[in-house]
Amino acid sequence: MRILIPFSFLVLLLFFQEGCVSTKSKQNRYINNDSLGLFSTHPSRPFKYGYAYTKAECLDGYKSFLNDLGLKKGEVVADIGGASGWIEGIFSVFSDSITYYVEDIDTNYANESELKKVVEYYSGVRGSPQTNQFHFVTGTKTTTNLPDGMFDKIIMLNSFHEIKAQQKILKDVLKKLKPDGVLIISDCFSNKYTTYHIPGCGSKAQSMKKIKDEVESAGYFLIHITEPENSFSNVLTFERDRHRTVPLYDKINSVQEFIQVLDKLNELFYAEDSVQTMDIGIFLEAHLEQITQVYPSLEDYLSSLGYEWIDEKFYPAALNVMKIWVELYPNSADAYYGLGQAYLKSLNDPLALSNFNKALKLEPGSRYIQRAITKAKSSH
């Protein structure tokens, strides 16, 4: 994941908020009169929960994630903990003839009425007749209430860590999937270096290994992963066929020596040292193609780590990681935006503004970059 403002980590952050605020106790923290907010009372808002994006912002923020999901015409897809269905609304801008089921347990803002508003809005964003279908299902803490044996894909976008009865839900999901159906979990993860606190709810994220073991004990096996294990975010795909895990682990082993170098950026000793991080960046660039064949969302690893160093107020480390990000992905608006944020936190407003402007050239018209530019100018 990803997710997200139209930038890779920030888009992923929106997924985090989707899951983490789907309880009434946390909801009031997000109510405001900002038309760009997550939960907004602004009169111009087309629906009250989720983000209302333009088509360009949808494409920029979610194209990569859509590739991870691999949605195809004719599929039946369920989103567990899907809130108002705003993510499915975004997906519908670029998908055709998919039947979406949006499931949630909190009907305060997750209900048929809100889903209808979402579909109406994104049908307009789509710019062509809507060919997808949408259904809302109210689940419980232990059951999804989805129809049995019907789904090609069931996805959990930052909702798995919110589930208390994980084994019960996993067993329930197994009955809902077709025999060759897949379960896709996009979530936050702690790693061996850091206990990660999930944006929005602040709860401690589990390790990827722990969640993988939990899911596999219920009868699903990992067949695809988008980022290395020590990333703070990942998209994990599981299916029933245990044998399909073998090629995945063969590929992981083939690039493990490169990932060991990448993982050094989690350690302050390396991340704060500009000379060592420059060497790490050069090494990664030489092996970038091999790494991304195994981990297609390597960029998100750098993104989430850079923002984590910012959150921990280790700004030199953040700058060094963001510089590697820009070096490896020179055409990424996300990368320049991230580097701009690191410079802004380092009180270097001119370089922050310079990088925000580079991001805007790559992503013209972005409301979020424009806001960052305005902030940098006001500080200058």
Q: How does this model look, in words?
A:
With 380 residues, the protein is α/β, with parallel strands linked by helices. It has 2 domains: 8-250, Rossmann fold (3-Layer(aba) Sandwich), CATH 3.40.50.150; 256-379, Alpha Horseshoe (Serine Threonine Protein Phosphatase 5, Tetratricopeptide repeat). It is built from 17 helices and 9 strands. A hairpin with a 7-residue loop joins strand 8 and strand 9. It is globular and about 55 Å long. The model is unreliable at 1-19 and 21-30 (pLDDT under 50).
Query: What is the CATH architecture descriptor of the largest domain?
Result: 3-Layer(aba) Sandwich
Work out the strand percent: 5-15%
Q: Which strand order spans the largest sheet, edge to edge or round the barrel?
A: 5-4-3-6-7-9-8
The dominant shape is globular
Corresponding CATH superfamily of the largest domain: Vaccinia Virus protein VP39
Please give the domain count: 2
Termini Cα gap: 34 Å
Number of helices: 17
By DSSP, the count of extended strands is: 9
- The CATH top-level class label of the largest domain: Alpha Beta
Q: Which stretches of 5+ consecutive residues score pLDDT under 50?
A: 1-19, 21-30
Main beta-sheet strand count, sense and barrel state: 7 strands, mixed
Q: In CATH terms, what is the fold-level topology of the largest domain?
A: Rossmann fold
Structural class by secondary-structure content: alpha/beta
Mean pLDDT: 88
Q: What is the gyration radius calculated from CA atoms?
A: 20 Å
Helix content: 40-55%
What is the ordering of alpha helices and beta strands? HHEEHEHEHEEHEHEEHHHHHHHHHH
